[in-house]
Amino acid sequence: MDIGKLQRKEITEEMREAYLDYAMSVIVARALPNVRDGLKPVHRRILYAMHDMGLRHDAKYVKSARIVGNTLAYYHPHGDLAVYDALVRLAQPFSLRYPLIQGQGNFGSVDGDSPAAQRYTEARLTAIAEEMLADIEKDTVDFQQNYDATRQEPKVLPSRFPNLLLNGSVGIAVGMATNIPPHNLREVVGATRHLLHRPSATAQDLMEFIKGPDFPTGGIIYNAKAILETYATGRGAILCRGKTEVAERKKGGFDIVITEIPYEVNKSGLVSKIAELVEEKKIIGIRDIRDESDREGLRVVIELKSDAQPERVLNQIYKLTDLEKTFHINLLALVDGLQPQTLSLPAILVEYIKHRKVVIARRTKFDLEKTKERIHILEGLAKALAHIDGVIKTIRGSENRDAAKKNLIKKFELSERQAEAILAMRLESLARLEREKIIEELKEKKKLAKELAAILKDPKKVIAVIDKELDDVEKRFGDARRTKVEAAPLGAMSDEELIIEEEVIVTLSQGNYIKRVNPDSFRLQRRGGRGVIGFEAKADEDALRLVTFANTHDTLLLFSNFGRVFRIKTYEVPEGSRISRGKPIQSFMNVFSGEEIVAIVNFRENKAAVPHKYLLMATQRGIMKKTPLMEFKNIRRAGMRALLLKKGDMLRWASLSFGEDEVLLVSSMGQAIRFKENQIRSMGRASAGITAMRLKGSDTVVGMGVISRRAKAEGDKEQKALVVTKNGFGKLTSIKDYRLQNRGGTGIKTAKVQEKSGPIIAAIIVRNEEELIAASEKGQAIRVPLASLPTQGRATQGVRVMKLDAADSIIAATVV
User: Fold this and answer.
1) How far apart are CA 572 and CA 602, in angstroms?
2) 3-class secondary-structure state, position 432
């Protein structure tokens, strides 16, 4: 209901309409580029204001503040900072592939430095920017009134080249965004000329010319298939990397030299990020970082430590910094000045060609009209020169200029404009050579008019004109591609692929400190020696708990006494020296308070050999469980349940099996039982096990070994049982000495346990291993040949493996 000028309206409807108006204003007037000239309104207004000011590429530089002032005063009534920021970007050679403004002064840097204030910098158009504005005075594009209706401004620029692709564009509108990368001029012009003559060309056809984006900062892009999909659909992502090389130093060692970085990556920010990662020890092997960039180009030198692997360090830098970056592409632009559309590569060039056809047609029509006007004047002058005596007589006989004009029109059948031209003719035109010039110009103009008319009548001639102008632009401004295109990242390897395969020893302390060390750290000794320091205890109570032999490419499954399991790669375990403490295991997995890692199982995934099928687990009370190994494939940092435990019981051992093996369980008091694995049925993770060995009194299971039937079938070395006691004694016993029994029994004697030897602390099935490494509670470790241990019967004590201090004892053992 109307009340004067007021109108009743639902607030929801009013808000919807107001928001849509705002959204369209942002989309059309601010955020998105026009597909025809690749410019947003602010950029177009800056360039046109500079054109108005006569700031050609060879003109004198003018203060940026003056350009900003003119742009604000006449065309773009917004904040001066926004206009200056847009002007600066148009001048930055690291932002635009082909800058449209020449800047003099500080216009910022690839390090993210801010430009100087507009009162200090100067600017003018570049030569290629003039091609954007060429023929704008020939009615080639539509104009509109400026904000205060005092001037006219172009809706779009004529643009003799596809600027949207050459310089790209970035913009965030309401509910949509555009991100168009820059491209190489030669390639884009080649594709455009191809499409001119073959309108049905596909994105794949055009990729014969355009290999991919061409960033001003260079770098390397990958995957032609992903680029093709992006060009075909208008959306996609392209992997970009900086350009690097590994250089060997004169005095030995290597440097990683970065000479190009991905587009829109801040160089100083990249250097700072690498330094931060080195400080946090997330990247290991870097000694120093130097930024040696100068006017000649970008150069960042990363000096590596002598023992660092360049490929591994470089891979970590790619993984953790913007030296490798995914550029997300969205080819969104305004079509017909109003409609935002996501366009394919051919669609963008089709719209540009349509624009140029209109521009050429309007320019040709304008030139034809001007040519006809000139022909008309020249025809009048020629007629006057042919009857010069009569013309002079007529003029002399007239009372004034108006009368002379009327008399000329009447007597010689001239138009008013021709008469005006004759009256304005200078006496020098009466000279013979001048008369010939007029006649010659008339012939040329008639010939030109004929050519222009032919262009308007024949669409093929319009295409030929566009083709010729594109060729001219390419010859004048074309340059070599800066961004290299490769089929696949040559360095796109996983950390594991970059890790040298080597045997290591993984140790875990009572305080849950873990590390890996080279086995050579423990020199080979005779049995019975004191060993060497193998671990620097954090405190008196923090002694070694586990020692495991593994390969750096192995996967480690770590089992806790609570029946949980964690997963980690061997190379992820921090490397340490023989006497270093290592790092808290809580840094790698969520271990509960009071929870201890009691068993480590190592295996190789994707190994060529026949893989293990099952995981066998045993508790200290003689309960066993068998679970398919595949159920432990996806383990999160928080770990997962591996076994349900009865009250008072704890998980102690775990081992791999093929499903057809035999099991040997050994107790601390010297009992052992051997039975077939198939007597234990396979169960899921969330279940308890079954009784495998019955124990007497306070006896507990201290070792579990898997006897491989596969090894026996393959004729491998004889398998033996190695037992090691608390007080440093050990021996080997042939598996043949242990008869097969049914699970659930108390077993038979495996060793003579006395006060001198102490209880058994480890039992291992050995086959091809050659050496034993034993570690004591106080951190001593010894490495001895297995051949130095005698093969004895079951009811024997064994021989001394390691000489211990009075208060020390063997805590862990492994074989190499």
Assistant:
1) 13
2) helix
- The β-bridge relationship of strands 780-785 and 748-749 is unpaired
Neighbours of 737 (CB within 10 A): 17
Q: How many CB atoms lie within 10 A of CB 225?
A: 10
Active-site positions read 120
Inform me whether the pLDDT recorded for 2 exceeds 70: no
DSSP H helices, 53-198, are: 64-74, 80-91, 127-133, 163-167, 185-197
For residues 432-449, average pLDDT: 87
Mean pLDDT in residue range 393-405 = 87
Pairing of strands 760-766, 720-725: antiparallel
Model pLDDT for residues 793-805, shown as the tens digit of each residue: 888 888 888 888 8
User: Which element (helix H / strand E) includes 785?
Assistant: strand 780-785
Q: How many Å is the maximal CA-CA distance in the chain?
A: 151
460/70 Cα distance (integer angstroms) = 41
Q: Hey, CA dihedral for 662, 665, 666, 672, is it positive or negative?
A: negative
Distance from chain centroid for Cα 737: 61
Give pTM, 2 decimals.
0.68
- Which token pair is 711? 């090894």
**Residue ranges of domains in the chain, CATH in brackets:** 11-185 (3.90.199.10), 243-322 (3.30.1360.40), 350-477 (1.10.268.10), 499-815 (2.120.10.90)
* Euclidean distance between CA atoms 392 and 467, whole angstroms: 50
590, 638 contact by CB (below 8 A):
yes
Percent of the chain beyond pLDDT 70?
A: 92
Nearest-angstrom CA–CA distance, 303 and 283: 13
Q: Mean pLDDT over all residues of the chain? A: 87
Cα separation, 663 vs 25, whole angstroms: 77
Q: Which pLDDT score, from 0 to 100, does residue 544 have? A: 66
* H or E segment to which residue 372 belongs: helix 345-386
3-state secondary structure 483-543: CEEECCCCCCCCHHHHCCCCEEEEEEECCCEEEEECHHHCCECCCCECCEECCCCCCCCCC
Residues 6 or more apart from 625 whose CB is under 8 A from it?
A: 616, 617, 643, 680, 683, 687, 688, 689, 690
Rounded Cα distance, 193 and 582, in Å: 65
Asked whether 516 and 532 are in contact (CB, 8 A), the reply is: no
Residue 802 neighbours by CB under 8 Å, 6+ apart: 527, 528, 529, 530, 531, 728, 774, 776, 780, 782, 784, 810
Strands 484-486 and 220-222 turn out to be parallel
| Residue pair 600/568 in contact by the 8 Å Cβ criterion | no
Could you give the C-alpha distances from 693 to 224, 582, 667, 682, 744, in angstroms and in order? Answer: 62, 36, 9, 18, 5
Separation in Å, CA 212 to CA 235, 353, 480, 804: 13, 20, 13, 69
Element (H, E) at 255: strand 254-260
Lowest mean pLDDT among 342-356, 527-541, 573-587: 527-541
- The per-residue pLDDT for range 769-795, each reduced to its tens digit, is 678 888 887 778 788 888 888 888 888
What are 588's two structure tokens? Answer: 């790698």
Torsion of CA 544, 546, 552, 556, to 10 degrees: -140
Give me 213's structure tokens: 């984006």
Three-class SS state of 146: coil
Over 70: is that where the pLDDT of 326 sits?
yes
Q: Worst-scoring range by mean pLDDT, 165-169, 182-186, 316-320?
A: 316-320
Helix ranges, 142-181 (H): 163-167
Q: Give pLDDT, residue 292.
A: 93
In 3D, which of 772, 683, 687 has the Cα closest to residue 722? 772
